[in-house]
Design brief:
The complex is a heterodimer of chains A (526) and B (142). By secondary structure, chain A is of the alpha/beta class. Chain A folds into three domains: 5-176, Dimethylsulfoxide Reductase, domain 2 (3-Layer(aba) Sandwich), CATH 3.40.228.10; 182-371, 3-Layer(aba) Sandwich (Rossmann fold), CATH 3.40.50.740; 415-525, Barwin-like endoglucanases, CATH 2.40.40.20. Helix content of chain A is 31%, strand content 17%. Chain A is built from 19 helices and 19 strands. A six-stranded mixed barrel of chain A has the order 14-18-15-17-16-19. A five-stranded parallel sheet of chain A has the order 3-2-1-5-6. Chain A starts with 12 loop residues before the first strand and ends with a strand. In chain A, 58% of the residues are buried. Chain B is α+β, with helices and mostly antiparallel strands and 142 residues long. Chain B folds into two domains: 2-56, Phosphorylase Kinase, domain 1; 72-141, no CATH class. The longest helix of chain B is centred in the middle third of the chain and has 19 residues, at 84-102. The chains are: A alpha/beta (526), B alpha+beta (142). Chains A and B meet through helix 2, helix 10, helix 12, strand 7 and strand 8 of A and strand 3, strand 4, helix 1, strand 6 and helix 2 of B.
């Protein structure tokens, strides 16, 4: 997030797009509702009717995959009605003329044709967003899990810059991170192209810095493979060994049949996890990991707040914390530089090589944490990014062209399947489905079908149906509901026994490499 | 607290909820070496004393029967319990062998958005400094 969670309450307008906030980030959802109670106006854009929709001044329900079209459409209305922030554009940005030219053709009428959003609703949303002094954009995987995900995010950034909604309280472009430590795993260099703090592996300067810090020579300058690419290379037999720490790709990744073929082909697979899970079946070695209650450490939330987890109990059974496991493997491989006695010692090394974390210490974190960048021990942390300037100086408008999703409905697969999460469950369910009070709420997969489609197919609420795509088939209960529009079906992906990801498409965005989990072609039969 | 004349230990351990990326402040209730409950942290700058239904239940999976409690190594097609030293040696051997025979880029690492910063830091250090590959990624995209 460019801004902080608490500031949402101070926004005049909040644009929530591709985020079912009250289910996926309930406490942030609470903040949004608190803002509404204080008089903020809410714009919700989502292919499903969600809880927040009923509190929205304007609710738009586009066809999944039409994001760039309607976001460009909002920019089109803002510019054609002269609602842009000219001072901000002049002093803080570049490329406005190119953007203006690019969005000119995305008139409300054309956007209605592409997305199904009524033209007058799009105009109302644009006026509301641009008319506020402080408008905040909140988005999630409904924006990013598309083959146009990067363009979707850039189109959102264009809107914020166009209206000067950057760098002040209650503004910004605010992605909500799905997992407790997605932010931290990225910050720590758990990515194929960067070391900690986004220092690039193909930068000679950064690589030399880490060679000196780690006392090694010859670090690879070649950008590595993403998860989706590693799966591909494993299936092709080029990637032959894999170490998986705390992930369950056999439920979380798109096109699970393909993932299985890839894992089966590996010469060696090691998995460290807290739970027995679906991926373990393909492992040569499985290591029992300690849970968050059994270890010390830090995690970084969606607003860049570094916070502590603390050891409350001894590890269950013979489990060991992952930090100990990784160090032990490294030492067994003959490496030096892994003789840490505590996570705090590891954190001290992280601070030395990561400028944005340099000023953070365990002692300073206490029970409230600190937000990076925090470059020095007397620095208070940074709740709002880009207050004075952008990291690249001026913000650059990036024109984006609408492209269709990788797979469109056709005669054989006439429906559009979109996937997501539920309030009571979490990702692949390895934790929530072992949690009695959550299982009591819901423990069965389902598919939401619009009443018009259900009538055509002779499907009634509660019927057992087969949902299939070009990649697989699952059997689930039908929920007939107008939460989804005609032609669209929705499935949660938590349930391994009827895994939505057997159906999803692994086609991915060329830049972000995020798979298109939010759109694929599917059909339903009784 | 006293139970049947035996002293029971009870304490609250401040921590952070590990479900979504909001990062709400929790207090884990610990009684006699078991996590028995979760309470909200009242002065937390994100959650201010509130928790969602998952947050209130975040302790429930800790003592699940599905927890892995011993290292397992595959032999004769089945995963069988073994000791840590054997399991760690097998991992080191498996990764080293493939890196040696097919080059470091034939090895990959999945870091984790479910693990701590320290653990992710160490895993990418293992991949880059020990094995010699940048094939390290996590489920940020999923």
């Amino acid at each position: 997030m460019t801004n902080s969670i608490g500031e949402l309450e101070d926004a005049e307008v909040i644009l929530v797009v591709g985020s079912n906030t009250t289910e996926q980030h309930p406490i942030i959802g609470e903040r949004i509702l608190a803002a509404v109670r204080k008089g903020a106006k809410l714009i919700v854009i989502d292919p499903r009717t969600i809880h927040l929709s009923s509190f929205a001044e304007v609710f738009l329900r586009p066809r999944p995959g039409s994001e760039v079209a309607y976001l460009n459409g909002l920019a089109n209305v803002i510019i054609s009605e002269g609602l842009e922030d000219r001072d901000f554009i002049a002093s803080r940005t570049e490329g406005f003329e190119e953007l203006k030219k690019a969005v000119a053709e995305y008139t409300p009428a054309k956007v209605e044709e592409i997305s199904g959003i009524p033209a007058q609703d799009l105009v109302a949303a644009a006026r509301l967003y641009a008319g506020a002094d402080r408008a905040s954009i909140v988005y999630c995987m409904g924006i990013t899990q598309h083959t146009t995900g990067t363009d979707n995010v850039l189109a959102l950034a264009n809107l914020a810059m166009l209206t000067g909604n950057v760098g002040r309280p209650g503004t910004g472009v605010n992605p909500l991170r799905g997992q407790n430590n997605v932010q931290g795993a990225c910050d720590m260099g758990g990515l194929p192209n960067v070391f900690t703090g986004y220092q690039r592996v193909d930068s000679e300067e950064a690589a030399a810095k880490f060679e000196a810090a780690w006392g090694v020579e010859g670090l690879s300058r070649k950008v590595g493979l993403t998860i989706t690419e590693m799966t591909e290379k494993a299936a092709e037999g080029e990637l032959r060994a894999l170490f998986i720490m705390g992930e369950n790709p056999m439920v979380s990744d798109p096109d699970i049949n393909h993932v299985r073929q890839a894992l089966e082909k590996l010469d060696f697979l090691a998995v460290a996890d807290i739970m027995d899970n679906e991926t373990l079946r393909y492992a040569h070695v499985a290591l029992p990991a300690a849970s968050f209650a059994e270890k010390d450490g830090t995690i970084t939330n969606t607003e860049r707040r570094v916070q502590r987890v603390r050891k409350a109990i001894e590890p269950v059974g013979e489990a060991k914390p992952d930090w100990e496991i990784v160090c032990a493997v490294a030492r067994k491989m003959g490496a030096s530089g892994f003789n840490f006695l505590s996570p705090e010692e590891v954190f001290e090394e992280i601070r030395k090589v990561t400028p944005s974390y340099a000023g953070i210490t365990y002692a300073r974190l206490g029970t409230r944490g600190l937000q990076w960048p925090c470059p020095a021990e007397d620095h208070p942390g940074t709740p709002i990014l880009h207050a004075e300037s952008f990291p690249i100086g001026k913000g650059r408008f990036t024109p984006c062209e609408f492209r269709e999703p990788a797979e469109l409905p056709d005669e054989e697969y006439p429906l559009t399947l979109t996937t997501g999460r539920l309030l009571f469950h979490y990702h692949t369910g390895t934790m929530t489905r072992r949690s009695p009070s959550l299982v009591r709420e819901i423990d069965r997969a389902f598919v939401e079908v619009n009443p018009a489609d259900a009538a055509e197919l002779g499907i009634r609420d509660g019927d057992r149906v087969k949902v299939s795509s070009r990649r697989g088939v699952v059997e689930v209960d039908a929920k007939v509901t107008d939460k989804v529009g005609k032609g669209v079906i929705f499935m949660p992906f938590h349930f391994a026994e009827a895994a939505a990801n057997l159906l999803t498409n692994s086609a991915f965005d060329p830049v972000s490499k995020i798979p298109e989990l939010k759109v694929c072609a599917a059909r339903i039969e009784k | 607290m006293v139970d049947n004349g035996k002293e029971l230990s009870y304490r609250l351990v401040p921590s952070t909820c590990v479900y979504c990326g909001t990062g709400c402040g929790v207090l884990l209730e610990v009684m006699d070496g078991r996590v028995t409950g979760t309470l909200p942290q009242k002065d937390h700058p994100v959650s201010w004393g509130a928790l969602c239904v998952k947050g209130w239940a975040v302790h429930e999976f800790v003592h699940s029967e599905r927890r892995l409690t011993a290292p397992l190594v595959r032999s004769g097609g089945e995963l069988k319990e073994t000791d840590w030293d054997t399991a760690l040696a097998a991992v080191a051997e498996g990764l080293s062998r493939v890196a040696k025979e097919h080059g470091p880029d034939a090895v990959g690492f999945f870091a984790s958005a479910r693990c701590t910063n320290e653990e992710n830091y160490l895993l990418q250090k293992l991949a880059r400094a020990v094995v010699g590959t940048n094939n390290v990624d996590h489920c940020a995209r999923l």
